[in-house]
Amino acid sequence: MAPNTYKTIVLAKRPKDNVIPGETFKLISDNAAPSADSLKDGEVLFQPNYLSIDPAMRGWLNDTRSYIPPVHIDEVMRGQAVGVVLGSKDSKFPKGSYAQGTVGWTELKVCKGKELEKIELPRGARLTDALSVLGMTGLTAYFGITDVGKVKAGDFVVVSGAAGATGSVVGQIAKLKGATVLGIAGSDEKCSWLKEELGFDGTLNYKDKEFGKKFRAATKNLIDVYFDNVGGEILDMALSRAKPHARFVMCGGTLDGLCILTITLTSSQASASITRLSRRGRRTT
């Protein structure tokens, strides 16, 4: 029996710093549930089963100009979801089929068919893979390391945030392309997972007291491709260890999509100066 009501989560107050439980968002639990019989031609009654929680969401809460408009106060929080079609008047999305779309934090939504994308999972895949390796995460990793980073066999690739959703896929793709991969993560457990499960050639824990020394030793032959997921001090260290014409893919440190840096070393010094910055603007949305 279909429910009479459904829940949504809306933005209640813009946070100044961290999201505050019970203040930033508000749960609305008495929305009147739509029925499949009320659908118009081209509409779909969609039930999200899994939501994607992404770092970019924090930026969407700020009332500032960006690549996408901010979420408005009392608006359902924006977000990707995968789920099942409960009813349909769009032949592309038959009842019972799986789909994905930016439907927000809601238990039900009446969508236009063009708002959704049909999910066709390969053998052995899970529905949640459409939000990760087979979804935006996988696209970001693939185009970032191949199209922007132009990874090739023999390259030495360094990935920050390597145990994260994007970084872990980046490292695996680089390995498949014949590169040697060094992953940077925040715990020994994560580092072990990267080496033992994903096949990274080496790993470093950035919380290690001797991280700087170990990073310099691990990059003694200098970096061909650096995939940045964090920015900050680690990015500065990587810049100082870059080969001439190294490719730096900026994923976590920019809101404007992926870009590439061409690096030139100053004489025989270990420091690097950026001589050309070209925006590639490949954003996966």
Automatic annotation (TrEMBL):
UniProt keyword list = Oxidoreductase
InterPro entries xref list: ADH-like_C, ADH_N_2, ER, GroES-like_sf, MDR_fam, NAD(P)-bd_dom_sf
Q: Where is the Enoyl reductase (ER) domain?
A: 22-282
Give a yes or no for keyword Oxidoreductase in this entry: yes
Which residue spans adopt a coiled-coil conformation according to this UniProt entry?
none
GO MF terms here are: oxidoreductase activity, acting on the CH-CH group of donors, NAD or NADP as acceptor
Q: What CDD domains does the entry give?
A: PGDH
Domain of life from the UniProt record: Eukaryota
Mind telling me what this protein is named? Enoyl reductase (ER) domain-containing protein
Protein species of origin:
Exophiala sideris
